[in-house]
Design brief:
The protein is mainly alpha-helical. It contains 13 helices and five strands. The chain is 48% helix and 5% strand. The strands form two sheets. A three-stranded parallel β-sheet has the order 1-2-3. The two termini are 28 Å apart. Keywords: Aminoacyl-tRNA synthetase, ATP-binding, Ligase, Nucleotide-binding, Protein biosynthesis. Its EC number is 6.1.1.2. Pfam families: tRNA-synt_1b.
Length: 357
């Protein structure tokens, strides 16, 4: 089980991170494995949203998941907010969760936020507290003015997983605490409402090998859709010309030659990371010999060509699907119904155990 926030068109960092891993999971899954991928609209509500833009972002994200290669016949692809069972289980788990446990979650005041279920939520450059109050730093935030959803969203995230009794949650290292909370809540429920068999499995974290893609204009920050300079990111919908122009203008350094040194040469290392990822290589060092005796123009040209080769298929498919609203809505309904079939079974057992029958 995994999910992603409806942030609209993903950038290259998103694609090489969670999304590419989802496709790989689908390709390598055993026939008996069940895969669920959700667009988590309720989690997006913890920060201010423009209703019109959110509705469009939901549709775009569904089209993106199809465009990158997720198969609605093999995987269950659905909108989280099409299944009320998530909320019902979240409330029951709310009533089992100590307030202090939530206040100790690192993402409550941490410098980054990621939801997932394998990056169920896109990383943000500021903490959620800072972003929600439009502040410059955490010291400017008055916690008494924050909405409760910012504190309790990890419980809803746990419900997203447990309502399907998922056994595996593919996430990065920064999601370990969230998976641990989910496991704690599953164990608490099992021990509080004992029966012959435990209801919830304790889901295992499946750490994904997500590439850390940096801004093309600021190598001290991750690539982000919220950055003011549009040239700092490559979007799935960017044309080959746009990709080439953005990479040609990417920051490097004043040193000669091409070497992979993320600390001393982060801009160059970022281009090598992108190139290696697009070529299916795990280690950026593997592509360095390609540029023996060459310089930045050759590196940037090769990187732009590799990115275009990687994205041209998904981009064309997204452009085809983007306007097919009725088709996308039909697939979303079908995915939600398949998800509800599984979650209803869980909720019947949950309500029987807690006495809500």
């Amino acid at each position: 089980m995994s999910g992603i926030q409806p942030t609209g068109i993903p950038h290259l960092g998103n694609y090489l991170g969670a999304l590419a891993n989802w496709v790989k999971l689908q390709e390598t899954a055993q026939p008996h494995d069940e895969l669920l991928f959700s667009i988590v609209g309720w989690h997006a509500m913890t920060l201010p949203q423009n209703p019109v833009e959110l509705a469009q972002a939901r549709r775009d994200m569904f089209a993106v998941l199809l465009a990158i290669g997720l198969d609605p016949k093999r995987s269950i692809i659905f909108h989280q907010d099409h299944n009320q069972d998530h909320l019902e289980l979240a409330w029951i788990l709310d009533c089992l969760t100590p307030l202090g446990k939530l206040q100790r979650m690192t993402t409550w005041k941490a410098s980054t936020f990621v939801m997932s279920l394998t990056n169920c939520f896109e990383p943000q450059s500021k903490s959620r507290l800072v972003a929600s109050r439009n502040a410059n730093s955490e010291s400017e935030v008055d916690e008494s003015m924050l909405n409760a959803g910012l504190l309790t969203y990890p419980i809803l995230q746990a419900a997203d997983i447990l309502v399907y009794r998922a056994t595996h949650v593919p996430v990065g290292d920064d999601q370990t605490q969230h998976v641990e909370l989910c496991r704690d809540l599953a164990d608490t429920f099992n021990r509080t409402f004992k029966a012959k068999d435990r209801l919830f499995p304790l889901p295992s974290q499946v750490k994904t090998n997500s590439k850390r893609i940096l801004s093309l204009k600021d190598s001290s920050a991750k690539m982000s859709k919220s950055a003011p300079d549009a040239r700092s990111r490559i979007l799935l919908t960017d044309s080959g010309v746009q990709i080439s122009a953005k990479i040609k203008a990417a920051v490097t350094d004043s040193l000669s030659g091409i070497t992979y040194d993320p600390v001393e040469r982060p801009g160059v290392a970022n281009l090598l990371t992108i190139l290696a990822a697009c070529m299916g290589k795990e280690d950026p060092q593997d592509v360095v010999p390609m540029f023996t005796g060459q310089g930045f123009p050759e590196l940037k040209a090769a990187t732009a060509e590799a990115v275009e080769e990687l994205l041209k298929g998904p981009r064309a498919e997204f452009e085809r699907l983007h306007g097919e609203t009725a088709y996308l809505e039909q697939l979303a309904r079908e995915g939600a119904e398949r998800a509800r079939v599984r979650s209803r079974q869980t909720m019947e057992l949950v309500k029987a155990r807690v006495g809500l029958v």
